[in-house]
Write a structure and sequence with these properties.
The complex is a heterodimer. The mean pLDDT of chain A is about 90. Chain A has strands at about 5, 10-15, 20, 25, 30-40, 45-50, 55-60, 65-70, 75-80, 85-95, 100-105, 105-110. Chain A is mainly β. The radius of gyration of chain A is 13 Å and the shape is globular. Chain B is built from no helices and 11 strands. Chain B has strands at about 5, 10-15, 20-25, 30-35, 45-50, 55, 65-70, 75-80, 85-95, 105, 110-114. In chain B, a hairpin with a 2-residue loop joins strand 5 and strand 6. Chain B is globular, with a radius of gyration of 13 Å. The chains are: A mainly beta, B mainly beta. The interface between A and B is medium-sized, with 24 and 27 residues.
Chain lengths: ~110, ~110
């Protein structure tokens, strides 16, 4: 069975600090990888996705993620966070049937102004 | 806005009761997936409907059932509610007819079972 692990459950940063959130998945085949963000009271929104090609993908709001196949990882990064980035971040994987997602448990990011 | 709407937004039910949650998919999408997000957890896949047929199911008991209608909207039904069914229920809309498309999530229905 597929699984997704997010190592950081709660991260607190000051504005302008750099961010890296870890995500590892377990699946031996071809996968599609996603990062979603959930702002308080809002729906899940797609930050970025990887299907194939360049393993460094850029998303909205200055976020990027790097797919490292040998490490089964898809870490999310942002060079300089803002207070408005305060939210919960979910890594997700699907494989085969591309519309069935397996989500990590989420990382709550709290950015202090 | 994603174009995916769910109703109701909040619901309180008593243990043992039945509940129906609704989802309207985005225009042009023919696939609806349902997820359960318990407090402090990531969403867990319940099942998926494609062209009115169930197309895969997660590790949920049969008292979780669903429907998809000709207009691709969908319902999630839960019978014999248990306290642990309290969660945010998310609907995701997508298209199986195009490769590499993303899914769009609704805002969810917050179900509380007392």
């Amino acid at each position: 069975a597929q699984s997704v692990s997010q190592h950081n459950h709660h991260v607190i940063l000051s504005e302008a600090a750099s961010l890296e959130l870890g995500c590892n998945y377990s699946y031996g085949g071809t996968v599609n990888l996603f990062w979603y963000v959930q702002y308080p009271g809002q729906h899940l929104q797609l930050l970025l996705k990887y299907f194939s090609g360049d393993p460094l993908v850029k998303g909205i709001k200055g976020f990027e993620a790097e797919f490292i196949k040998s490490k089964f990882s898809f870490n999310l990064r942002k060079p300089s966070v803002q207070w408005s980035d305060t939210a919960e971040y979910f890594c997700a994987v699907n494989a085969g049937n591309f519309n069935k997602f397996y989500f990590g448990s989420g990382t709550k990011l709290n950015v202090k102004p | 806005e994603t174009g995916v709407t769910q109703s109701p937004t909040h619901l309180i039910k008593t243990r043992g009761q039945q509940v129906t949650l609704r989802c309207s998919s985005q225009s042009g999408h023919n696939t609806v997936s349902w997820y359960q997000q318990a407090l402090g957890q990531g969403p867990q896949f319940i099942f998926q409907y494609y062209r009115e047929e169930e197309n895969g199911r997660g590790n949920f008991p049969p008292r979780f059932s669903g429907l998809q209608f000709p207009n691709y909207s969908s319902e999630l039904n839960v019978n014999a509610l248990e306290l642990d069914d309290s969660a945010l229920y998310l609907c995701a809309s997508s298209s199986m007819d195009r490769s590499n498309t993303e899914a769009f999530f609704g805002q969810g229905t917050r179900l509380t079972v007392v």
